[in-house]
Amino acid sequence: AVARSLHLAVPRARLVCTAGEEGRRIVNALSALVPGCEKKLQEGSGVLLIMQFRHGFTLDHAGLRKSLGNLLESHDDNASVAKLLRSCGRLAMMDVFLNNVDRLPLLSKNQGNPTNVLLSVPTLELVAVDSSVRSVMQENELVAYVEVVDRLLRQLSKGLREKKPIYGAQRLRTFIKLHTRWDVREEGCLLLQQGMWACLRDTLKLTTRSLMEIKRNLKGVTLPDLSGSGLREEIDEGYLECMLQLFKTHVQTAA
């Protein structure tokens, strides 16, 4: 819901209990395709994550590396390529907001996870998969994270004013080139930054109330214990207030 509000493509997904009628039908169908999987499913959390299929390649897929050059040439008006890079910047900023820092190496020094970014072919639509929220943290962690994000947003604002790539955008450039062999160059870095700032502004349209409604909806679903399953996302009101205020401050300062 958050991703779609920020104009990012994500697969639709829902949770299904294996004990229910639909869940049993799904388990039976899977068992016919994969012998022995029924036992593994019964030993699990009792919940199935049903996700929409989106056609495309993960960023590290060999098929994408082979076809990307022709794809980029086929979109010779450059508008689709610019939209793709801005979408990548949007995705990076959404991950900052959600503290989902393992996908793209914008904030941290990790190498990123190219399997969590899908490129639809031939439309060049960027699709975010396996998105998660890590907002519940200790106070010292929150303070440290806010400081890192504040520094990033200051750099981003300056980079946009001076039309210069910031360090984070250069890291994204390296990430994209490493996995796709496509060098977006400095012009591409500027498009990434435009996408980051657009997402930053759109995030302000998300009120704490609307985000907490997502949390209430999650709590309202009758499910077995999901602790450790990674299927339930925790959304902390204090964290959201802090991030929304930080984003708002930088947008107002830039204005």
Structural topology:
Layout: H1 2-5, E1 13-17, H2 21-33, H3 37-43, E2 47-51, E3 57-58, H4 62-74, H5 79-98, E4 117-120, E5 125-128, H6 139-162, H7 167-180, H8 185-203, H9 208-219, H10 237-254
Antiparallel strand pairs: 1-2, 3-4, 4-5
Helix pairs in contact: 5-8, 6-8, 6-10, 7-8
Report on the structure:
This protein has 255 residues and is mainly α. Helices cover 56% and strands 8% of the residues. It has ten helices and five strands; from the N terminus they run H-E-H-H-E-E-H-H-E-E-H-H-H-H-H. The strands form two sheets. Strands 3-4-5 form a three-stranded antiparallel β-sheet, with helices on one face. A two-stranded antiparallel ribbon has the order 1-2. Helix 5 crosses helix 8.
What is the gist of this entry?
The protein has 255 residues and is mostly helical.
Order of helices and strands: HEHHEEHHEEHHHHH
Low-confidence stretches: 220-232
In what range is the share of β-strand residues?
Answer: 5-15%
Largest sheet: 3 strands, antiparallel
Widest β-sheet, arrangement of strands:
3-4-5
Secondary-structure-derived class: mainly alpha
* Average pLDDT over all residues: 85
Report, as a whole number of angstroms, the end-to-end distance: 28 Å
- Estimated radius of gyration: 20 Å
- Find the count of extended strands (DSSP E, 2+ residues): 5
**Helix content estimate:** 55-70%
Q: Given the C-alpha coordinates, what overall shape results?
A: globular
Number of helices: 10
